[in-house]
Amino acid sequence: MASTRLFEPRELLYPSNMLTIARLLLIPPTFRYLRQPERRREALACLGVAMLTDAIDGPLARARGEVSPLGELLDPVADKILINGTAIILSKTRDFPWWITGLLLFRDLGIIAAALVVIKRRSQITVAASTGKLTTALLTAAALLYVADGPRSGKPALYVAMVPFLLSFFQYGKRFLAVMRNQDE
Known about the structure:
lipid metabolism, lipid biosynthesis, single chain, CDP-alcohol phosphatidyltransferase, transferase, Four Helix Bundle (Hemerythrin (Met), subunit A), transmembrane helix, 6 helices
């Protein structure tokens, strides 16, 4: 009988997945510090370290031959929670544009819904698009600038991040349609 598990428990011990889990564990203190203007340095440190784990976990998994279903699932979930939660808090506290927060939430909810459909129908986890990874990096830079200096430095970086963001929106949609078309074959 074939296993129906999405991942094997030993994948929890892969260094790359441990970094992703560390990123998930950094989310509560990051959000707490982001809501406290006097704790801006702590917020910068937590957000910076959390997103540094994102820069390291994928290359580490590939270098060690430990790309895993668990990592492919947890990594984008951690990114989406961190980026979207940060955008919401910064919209409330640092003049981060609400319309961009809305676009982020809309795109990411669409990605999650599409991924769930693909997992259900194909038992397959889809990986991030290249423009999605660039978007995450640039949104992180913009968020760090918003925390450090507010809209003066953050807004120009945010507008730069919107270019790959919009491209990723279409790239994810195109990939979803291609996966769903191949299902019928």
